[in-house]
Design a protein that fits this description.
The complex is a heterodimer of chains A (114) and B (111).
Chain A (H helix, E strand, L loop, with lengths): L3 E4 L2 E4 L5 E7 L5 E7 L5 E9 L2 E4 L7 E3 L5 E6 L8 E8 L9 E2 L3 E5 L1
Chain B lengths: L8 E5 L4 E6 L7 E8 L6 E6 L4 E2 L4 E4 L5 E6 L8 E9 L12 E6 L1
Parallel strand pairs in B: 1-9
Antiparallel strand pairs in B: 2-7, 3-4, 3-8, 5-6, 6-7, 8-9
The chains are: A mainly beta (114), B mainly beta (111).
C-alpha cells in the first residue's frame, strides 16, 4: 500500500542546474498538489492539478513548472535552480467526491541549492 | 480564503486530554474545517474534518462552535507520539480544493 511516493528523497543542486521531482500515487486520485515548506513555516502551494493533462498555479509558482501527463504522476521541474528554492517539497493527492475528502501526503524531498 | 488563528505552541502531559483551539471568524458557509498534523521530518497527516456537526474518529474529536467561527481539536489521551505541529485549515469546496496551511500549533507532550 504505497500511497504517495516522492523521488528523490534528498538532492543537492548547484545554482543554475535543473532537476525534476517525481510524485507518484497509486490511489487513482484526480487531484494532485506540490507544496514547499521552508524551515519553521507552514506549507505553501506551488502548483496543482485537477486531472490528467491539466495544471494550475498556486501561491508560489515562480521558478517552477509542472506536468501531469499520466493520472498517477505529477512532476515538478526546476529549470534553473536558485538558493531561494532550498526547501522541503511535499506532494499530495486526493480524490474528488460529493463530500469533502482527505489529502494524502508524501514523505517529502529535501532539496538544497548551493 | 478565510484565515485561521491558532496558538503557536501548547504543552500537555502524557495520557491527559488535549484541546487545541482554532479561530476562524471569517468562515463561509461552504468552508470545511480540516485538521492535519505533521510529525517531525514527515509529511502532513490527515486527522479529521467537519462542516457543521461535531465529528469523531479513531484519532480525535472535532468540536465545532454553533456559529462555526471557532473549532477545537480534542485528543482524548495524549501520547508522546502525538507531539507534532497541528494545522487547522479551512477548505473551500471549489475547483482544485487545495489546502492553505497557516503556522499551526506545536504540541509538546511531557512524560
Amino acid at each position: 500500500n504505497a500511497g504517495v511516493t516522492q523521488t528523490p528523497k534528498f538532492r543537492v543542486l548547484k545554482t543554475g542546474q535543473s532537476m525534476t521531482l517525481l510524485c507518484a500515487q497509486d490511489m487513482n486520485h484526480e487531484y494532485m498538489y506540490w507544496y514547499r515548506q521552508d524551515p519553521g513555516m507552514g506549507l505553501r502551494l506551488i502548483h496543482y492539478s485537477v486531472g490528467e493533462g491539466t495544471t494550475a498555479k498556486g501561491e508560489v509558482p515562480d521558478g517552477y513548472n509542472v506536468s501531469r501527463l499520466k493520472k498517477q504522476n505529477f512532476l515538478l521541474g526546476l529549470e534553473s535552480a536558485a538558493p531561494s528554492q532550498t526547501s522541503v517539497y511535499f506532494c499530495a493527492s486526493r480524490r474528488t467526491g460529493r463530500d469533502d475528502t482527505e489529502a494524502f501526503f508524501g514523505q517529502g524531498t529535501r532539496l538544497t541549492v548551493v | 480564503d478565510a484565515k485561521t488563528t491558532q496558538p503557536n505552541s501548547m504543552e500537555s502531559n502524557e495520557e491527559e486530554p488535549v484541546h487545541l483551539p482554532c479561530n476562524h471568524s471569517t468562515i463561509s458557509g461552504t468552508d470545511y474545517i480540516h485538521w492535519y498534523r505533521q510529525l517531525p521530518s514527515q509529511g502532513p497527516e490527515y486527522v479529521i474534518h467537519g462542516l457543521t456537526s461535531n465529528v469523531n474518529n479513531r484519532m480525535a474529536s472535532l468540536a465545532i462552535a454553533e456559529d462555526r467561527k471557532s473549532s477545537t481539536l480534542i485528543l482524548h489521551r495524549a501520547t508522546l507520539r502525538d507531539a507534532a505541529v497541528y494545522y487547522c485549515i479551512l477548505r473551500r469546496n471549489n475547483a482544485g480544493n487545495m489546502l492553505t496551511f497557516g503556522g499551526g500549533t506545536r504540541l509538546m507532550v511531557k512524560p
